[in-house]
Specification:
The chain starts with 25 loop residues before the first helix and ends with a helix. Helix 7 packs parallel to helix 9 and helix 14 crosses helix 17. The radius of gyration is 29 Å and the shape is elongated. The chain has 23 helices and 13 strands. It is 51% helix and 10% strand. A hairpin with a 7-residue loop joins strand 3 and strand 4. It has 513 residues and is α+β, with helices and mostly antiparallel strands. InterPro entries: HD/PDEase_dom, HD_domain, HDIG_dom, NT_sf, PolA_pol_head_dom, PolyA_RNA-bd, tRNA_adenylyltransferase, tRNA_CCA-adding_enzyme.
């Protein structure tokens, strides 16, 4: 396989582009280079084959963006982004001949794609997906929420319009010539997010790049360049021109990233959150009455980190990363600003903030175009997150435990983790007491579940049996009878059909029916 150059070079001038004088340790750059060679060894054969086909047709082709960045981070990818001067009409037959399936869903944005099945590559391999995009630049009409697409004519011009320098590197195929006109490799080694061109111009062209900055901080663990940060602070209101769906997608990627707290802090500190998630920065003004050493904003970020730590592996109860749990941790206290009251003696209360917060969470997630199930689940967890605190004040009856399980339904395991994470007190004795109380509650749930099949609590009689016993037809009376028997089941546990029949007839007689 052709080797990468010993120094990063610009393919046009073939001159070294190495790191700036005050840049990263050259050893760090060399380590990145070695990782890239190992990753490209996996990715390159298919890319080289495609590059040879494009060259034979008279077109350049280059790997760009995330796959190149990730190669230097030691991450091989089977999803390859490439760019070319060829138009979609010219590129499509070339990738169709290369792949086993192809599509042109992104044609209006200059993109066509193809898939090469794993069978071509031997045992243990995976499918390779490529998307080939014509050199382009994205720009925004100030009155439109959709980007305008303009095709370009050079690779360097295409790279200049990328969001950050670490994503503005390319590898020409089939020769594997590394192209880095904006010192992206140096920034990658230094862990810095910097725009290839003036950040104000870049963010004005596509305001969503400001959200991507926060997302990449969360994904890569990088810090934001000072100029880029200042530009976001100045231009934060510009994000409002971007569609809710695109903002939602970036927020989702941020929350599912390895370091979501760092990304959220960028959103809040730059003012972006004021426009996309205003409930979060609003928490900085509130002091949590249970944890006076921190404000509710810091408490919320701690809850998020603790909830993430309680996610499980693929075979566990809550496989991570779990979007619903992370959203619930982020939004569980957003009702506090609306419910804050100053009490006599200097205390502060937030009565019913969980109910108010559930409504606010639902409203915000709907505005961001999250799906109905996610909206309902996050709102329900927000509403239930304080329920446990009554348990520590006095032992619950079995009935109360059954209601806790039934009200949580399929969200119970997430509720366990949210409730445990909500305890962020520095008082070790109090923390130990809360943990012991919740351990006890979970043990009681397990005991009752084993005895009573709590996950599927239903009355001892179904609707058909109710109608037969009472001699009635389908209607409101059947529903009321069913709910009454369910209440009895909650309160007393399994009754058995005979006792349930007696209870039903007693209830029916008391109604004067």
């Amino acid at each position: 396989m052709p080797d990468l150059p010993a120094e990063p070079t610009d393919a046009t001038t073939d001159q070294p582009v190495g790191p700036p004088v005050d840049g990263p340790d050259p050893a760090a750059v060399q380590q990145l280079r070695r990782r890239a060679l190992e990753s490209l060894a996996v990715m390159a054969p298919d890319a080289i084959d495609l590059g040879q086909r494009f060259r034979a047709a008279g077109y350049d082709l280059a790997l760009v963006g995330g796959p190149v960045r990730d190669a230097f981070l030691g991450r091989a990818s089977n999803d390859l982004d490439l760019t070319t001067p060829a138009t979609p009409d010219e590129a499509e037959p070339l990738i169709a001949a290369w792949g086993d399936a192809h599509w042109d869903i992104g044609r209006e944005f200059g993109t066509v794609g193809a898939r090469r099945f794993a069978g071509r590559r031997g045992p243990g391999s995976q499918d390779v997906v490529v998307e080939v995009t014509t050199y382009r630049t994205d720009a925004y009409d100030p009155t439109s929420r959709k980007p305008l697409v303009e095709f370009g004519d050079t690779l360097e011009g295409d790279l200049s319009r990328r969001d950050f320098t670490v994503n503005a590197m390319a590898v020409r195929v089939p020769d594997l010539v590394f192209v880095d006109p904006f010192d992206g490799l140096a920034d990658l080694a230094a862990g810095v997010l910097r725009t290839p061109i003036d950040p104000r111009r870049s963010f004005d062209d596509d305001p969503l790049r400001m959200m991507r900055a926060a997302r990449f901080v969360a994904q890569l663990g990088f810090r934001l360049d000072d100029d880029a940060r200042a530009a976001i602070v100045d231009m934060a209101p510009r994000i409002e021109i971007v569609s809710a769906e695109r903002v939602r997608d970036e927020l989702t990627k941020l929350l599912l990233a390895p370091h979501p707290r760092a990304g959220l802090e960028v959103l809040v500190e730059t003012g972006l959150a004021d426009h996309v998630l205003p409930e979060l920065p609003a928490l900085r003004l509130e002091i949590d009455e249970h944890h006076r050493h921190k404000d509710v904003y810091q408490h919320t970020l701690m809850v998020l980190e603790k909830a993430i730590a309680l996610e499980t592996g693929p075979d566990g109860a809550v496989p991570g990363p779990d979007l619903v749990l992370r959203l619930a941790a982020l939004l569980h206290d957003i009702g506090k600003p609306r419910t804050r009251r100053f009490e006599e003696g200097g205390g502060v209360s937030f009565h019913h903030h969980e109910v108010v917060g559930a409504k606010l969470a639902s409203k915000r997630l709907k505005a961001l175009r999250f799906d109905k199930q996610t909206v309902n689940d996050v709102a329900r967890l927000t509403e239930l997150h304080l329920r446990f605190h009554g348990y520590g004040e006095g032992e619950w009856t079995d009935s109360a435990v059954r209601r806790y399980v039934t009200d949580a339904g399929p969200l119970l395991e997430r509720l366990h983790r949210l409730t445990r994470s909500d305890s962020t007190t520095r008082n070790q004795r109090k923390a130990a007491r809360l943990k012991a109380a919740y351990d006890d509650l979970e043990q009681r749930i397990a005991t009752l579940r084993e005895a009573e099949e709590l996950a599927s609590i239903r009355p001892d009689l179904d609707g058909t049996q109710i109608m037969e016993i009472l001699g009635i037809r389908p209607g409101r009376d059947v529903g009321e009878a069913y709910r009454y028997l369910l209440e009895q089941r909650m309160e007393h546990g399994p009754l058995g059909e005979e006792r349930a029949r007696e209870v039903l007839l007693e209830w029916w007689a008391a109604r004067g029916a």
